Protein 1
Amino acid sequence: MPKGEGKLIAQNKKARHDYHILETFEAGVVLQGTEIKSIRNSRINLKDGFVRVRNGEVFLVNVHISPYEQGNIFNHDPLRTRKLLLHKRQIRQLEAESKNAGITIVPLKVYIKDGYAKVLIGLAKGKKEYDKRERIKPVT
């Protein structure tokens, strides 16, 4: 399956509106206990999330996964930082690109592929305020 295909769980439409997506990467997510059950119930919010590269590792920050309703004491912290699984070559590329001014890494969508939760992340460059109106304006 190509990148971004599988059962779509959540999508960050705001990211495509606010940023030009330069390149995308598919990453696995390290989850705890009941997090996968919450994700399969579509209880995830990517809106304010971003990706940070630290010490040769990639982390998903500020993504809200709601606690699983039947999870009792084994539930997780909804806003915890989650590690992403990528190849070293991809991590080095992300780290180099994100050091450039105006480039950030944002999560675009979460989906289930072959039974595993995957995150499509993108290298993004912020749009100017006036660009948004120009993009929406109908062509005459």
Protein 2
Amino acid sequence: MVEWITSDALVSYEDATAFMEARAEAIARGEAEECIWLLEHPPLYTAGTSAKIEDLTDPDRFPVHTTKRGGQYTYHGPGQRVIYVMLDVAKRGKDVRCFVRQLERWVILALEEFNVTGHIRDGRVGVWVERPDKPLSVSGAVREDKIAAIGIRLRKWVSFHGISINVEPDLGHFSGIVPCGITEHGVTSLVDLGLPVVMADVDVALRRTFEIAFAPEAAPTCDLAG
């Protein structure tokens, strides 16, 4: 059983971290169910374990939180669906790479509910969308924008932190960082793509596609790049 929690009010990063750490410990001890928490944060930046200080281009703009999740700098704020995943990776195969691929696949399946095609790219964690409406890159390739970020931490084989999907955040707030250390690609959202989507729509899509993304038969090969 997985408990789903949805918070309507903005949740501070400190409160979210404290909850996740306590819940992950309880799951590891067998004292609590797995949990998926859907929430929004006030505007802030987080620095993952691979963050480079030069990628924080406007350090005084919003609070900056150092975190032990994987990844680099990320923005969180209103209009962005944050999905914290406290799941038992041990009982899901003890394969971290596969688990991350399942998270990516989950996002891609949820985006398909809105006829948006998400992609994963080698060397770029997260989910991307092609932007044929934008000028080609200097190399002649189709532009791509990031629509979802992924960064997790494991403790005793229980995950916490997770995913953020841009629904309708202020995309200008990303300009205070180099998102995930990538300069040659942009950031987008569902509303920026022209879709009249609200947070509740995304929540329904996430719940509808969760069991598909984490189906046990998908885990052994982890061939989820689709």
